[in-house]
Amino acid sequence: HAGGPDAPVTTSELLSTSLRAKEPPPDQNYFPLTQGMKLKYRWTNPRYLKAPSVQEVTVDQVLNSSARFSVKHLSGPIRVAGNYGFSTHADGVVNIWGLTKAATTIRFPPLGPKSLPRNKRRHFFTPFDLMDFGFNPLLTAYPRVGQTWESKIPSRDFSTFGVSGSAKVMGIQRVRVPAGSFNALVVRASLRQPGFRFGSGIRTSWFAAGKVL
User: Fold this and answer.
1) Cα-based distances in Å from 143 to 56, 81, 90
2) pLDDT tens digit string along 141-159?
3) Cis peptide bond N-terminal to 154, omega within 30
4) Is the pTM of this model over 0.70?
């Protein structure tokens, strides 16, 4: 109230309301940025990579909701070393950069977009390359079943990948991997890279709370 410190003060108390509180958003962390976390991945392709490539990923550094992941070769036909940057913010989990070097006799089909010279196009050397190919976010901040999002054109992602498409949270599925069995959130993305069949198709990713699957 106006009138200075000696003016009367009115107090009120809410006794009832017809409004219903909304359900709080889920608090599971499906992409933890935990410094020192080590992960092992084994991946194959039935046509081009029949012998598995096994790689170790370490969360090297975490700062302000961003993290650097390093990748090193353990076994298999792709001798790779690389680093990736991921960030979590209001939009969700976002890949902000990536750099890999690899020596291999494996020859995957080419990727686009045609607008970039060949030496600046992405390659599939690690599972992270498969996971973050196309557009951000990889996963929304508060994922829920049925939630969808689409690529943005124009955008930095489209300039890099030349991929259009959409993604959808499908639900929870029990998955078994060498590290154990987990209830994982399933995200399915439809990707289209004009002129490049290897950059187009359906991608399914599984995210387990507290893990990076």
Assistant:
1) 27, 31, 12
2) 999 999 999 999 999 999 9
3) yes
4) yes
